[in-house]
Amino acid sequence: MTNGAKRRVVSSVVLLIAISIFASIMFNERASASWAGAKVEQDNAQVAEQTMEQKFKNIQVLKGLPAAQLRPMMNYMSASLGVTCAACHVKTGDEWEFDKDDKKNKQTARKMIQMTLDLNKNQFEGKVEITCYTCHQGLGHPASVPPLPRAMQREQARSTQAFPTPQQILAQYTQAIGGKEAVEKAKTRMLKGVSVAANGQSFPLEIQFESADKVALNVELGQTPTTQKLNGSSGWLKSSRDDRAMDSVEILKIKSLAWSLEPLQLKEPYPRLTFGGWEKVGDRDCNILRMALPDKRRVRFYFDKETGLLLRRVIQTDTPIGTDPEQIDYEDYRDVDGVKVAFTIRTSYLDTNYSSLRKFTEIRHGVKIESSIFNK
Ligand code: HEC
Ligand code: HEC
Known about the structure:
CATH class of the largest domain: Mainly Beta
Bound molecules: heme C
Strand order of the largest sheet: 8-7-6-5-4-3-15-14-13-12-11-10-9
Mean pLDDT: 82
């Protein structure tokens, strides 16, 4: 896609603004979760206010839903059927025409959305139990025959272990990363490394982290340095092509990058933590903590049962047709001045264009950061 074409898509699809411009500049260097605290909610509120039919041209079944849910739902449908946007949408030359109904799949999808909404409403008291993925499982045409040979069915051994409390899990985590002093020390950070694109190419990366709302990020894309800065509720983007203030969606993204770097400090005002059972991440047994976020989002934290370290967080956005997940994996924990930190952070989305892998080679704590670097 050329930039000109990108701009045209952007004008019709406001939600894609951040995503496409950001993508053209940052490739995979995108922020992770879409949540980073109360201020985000204000930014988000502005984005969420408009309904789908106010923002887009040809909405027939998704009427009344917040426009901000369009993108997660489209990603969700694509991933559920194992297709790209082009399976349902028309692209003329370089230009997407998302409002057109020329493709049969798009019309079928409308019927399917309506069916899914009706099933949940009429059969499951409005709970989202039936989703595109329930039937499709990554296939255009759902399978109707169970595969052979059948796996051996085993009785699940009942666990006799007592459930840990959220407080115990968090205490074990704090201990694991080096205790309360470590959390204090890790409050400011300088991280150097590379951002690895899906094609394996890597780009030098440097991040200065002062707090959840003060972070600066530099990526060398080829010879072109690209800088993003977040300072409180405003942010700036600078590259050879751009030098401008960030919009609210971009700010949301960089805030969530900051959130993914911050050592967890889960306490008030986030009191709705519950124990969520046990699951494996790779071959590690994990304790899970769940937390409800505003905006129909939920987060699950996976802590290594033995070491106590945070291995994964998954942020789920609920939509009426299914859940759109974002996953952040923390790998390669190493000791830096008595603080345990992940040297590899992997972020995965249903929309693989935005998945990212950051590998750090140097992390320093307690660095003195010139406050001017966060300014425009
Ligand atoms: C399985 C089919 C399907 C796939 C795949 C799909 N969409 Fe859609 N899309 C739809 C349907 C159906 C609508 C209309 C919904 C309605 O009428 O309420 C729609 C509407 C839209 C609209 C609103 C257009 C307008 O102005 O009315 C945009 C934008 C959009 N999709 C973007 C995308 C993007 C981006 C992707 C890929 C990530 C994607 N879609 C993948 C079926 C699909
Ligand atoms: C209850 C099961 C079920 C659910 C839920 C469901 N589908 Fe389907 N879908 C089917 C079946 C079965 C077919 C095949 C129908 C046929 O071939 O006539 C199908 C076909 C389709 C097709 C046509 C594919 C092709 O290759 O012809 C599209 C597009 C589609 N579904 C989209 C969706 C979307 C989007 C959702 C979620 C909003 C969804 N479906 C939810 C069962 C389901």
